[in-house]
């Protein structure tokens, strides 16, 4: 169960989202509310955060492009040598326009924007969209000019990815898809806070439909991020794959990557 909690200045935004997703709205909350709800989406001066409750609760989930692991990866992640860059065809000579159809918390999109690509993000889950929009807004207000330039290359549209792809056929050089995959808590190397996030969002059951739409829309290639041992979506074999320790990128090459004429 989820409740949306807000300090007074943020009540309007919290109320709008609570009505959209059918969650209870809390203006003032206590430990009693923690026992009633497994998770709270909190609107306060620190931004929007998904906060699991309970005694052994993990930390909150928040989109933060300014510090932590995301910003560390920007500075020390390996640049164009990263597998995601190779999979999407990002190089010093070519910065493809990428459509990220499963934007989530925006981490992969931020990496690609860091490397110079313009990235259109689409996210259908309204709760995740609220987290992502908040993170982008906070990043836009920073006084770090490097971050500001990266954020300018990120564009966000809440809604259905298949609809976006059908309406923008041939616009994106690369369509990037990272469907939420059902993970085992025993075997998955996933942080506790991300397990809480996955339990709320759930798995993407329409991955096959999204892949078909992506293949019909991408100008050059479709890149699908998968757990290393997971089957290909709908059994559709990629042209090739880049494999890492825990994950891989399935690449469906439609035509040679090159700037649009």
Number of helices: 10
Low-confidence stretches: none
Task: Identify the strand order in the major beta sheet.
Answer: 7-6-5-8-9-11-10
Which whole number gives the mean pLDDT?
Answer: 88
The count of domains is 2
Give the structure's gist in a few sentences:
This protein is an alpha/beta fold and 261 residues long. Helix content is 35%, strand content 21%.
Describe the protein.
By secondary structure, the protein is α/β, with parallel strands linked by helices. The chain has two domains: 2-52; 68-253, Vaccinia Virus protein VP39 (Rossmann fold, 3-Layer(aba) Sandwich), CATH 3.40.50. 35% of the residues lie in helices and 21% in strands. The protein has helices at residues 11-21, 31-36, 68-76, 83-88, 107-114, 126-140, 145-152, 161-167, 192-201, 207-217, and strands spanning 2-6, 24-26, 39-44, 47-52, 98-100, 119-123, 154-158, 174-177, 221-227, 240-243, 247-253. The chain has a seven-stranded mixed β-sheet, with helices on both faces. A four-stranded mixed β-sheet has the order 2-1-3-4. Helix 8 (161-167) runs parallel beside helix 10. The chain is globular, with a radius of gyration of 19 Å. The model has no long low-confidence stretch (mean pLDDT 88).
């Amino acid at each position: 169960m989820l409740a949306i909690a807000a300090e007074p200045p943020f009540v309007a935004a919290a109320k709008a989202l609570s009505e959209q997703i059918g969650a209870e709205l809390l203006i003032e909350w206590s430990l009693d509310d923690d026992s009633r709800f497994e998770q709270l989406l909190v609107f306060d001066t620190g931004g929007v955060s998904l906060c699991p409750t309970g005694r052994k609760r993990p930390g909150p989930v928040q989109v933060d492009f300014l510090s932590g692991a995301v910003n560390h990866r920007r500075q020390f992640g390996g640049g164009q040598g990263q597998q995601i860059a190779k999979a999407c065809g990002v190089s010093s000579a070519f910065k493809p326009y990428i459509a990220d159809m499963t934007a989530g918390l925006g981490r992969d999109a931020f990496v690609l924007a860091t490397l110079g690509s313009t990235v259109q993000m689409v996210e259908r889950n309204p709760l995740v969209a609220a987290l992502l929009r908040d993170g982008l807004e906070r990043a836009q207000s920073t006084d770090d000019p490097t971050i500001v330039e990266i954020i300018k290359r990120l564009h966000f549209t809440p809604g259905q990815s298949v609809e976006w792809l059908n309406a923008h056929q041939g616009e994106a050089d690369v369509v990037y898809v990272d469907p939420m995959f059902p993970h085992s808590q025993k075997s998955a190397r996933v942080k506790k806070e991300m397990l809480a996030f996955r339990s709320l969002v759930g798995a993407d059951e329409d991955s096959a439909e999204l892949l078909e739409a992506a293949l019909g829309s991408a100008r050059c290639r479709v890149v699908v991020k998968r757990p290393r041992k997971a089957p290909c979506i709908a059994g559709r074999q990629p042209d090739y794959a880049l494999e890492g320790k825990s994950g891989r990128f399935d690449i469906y090459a439609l035509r040679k990557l090159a700037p649009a004429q």
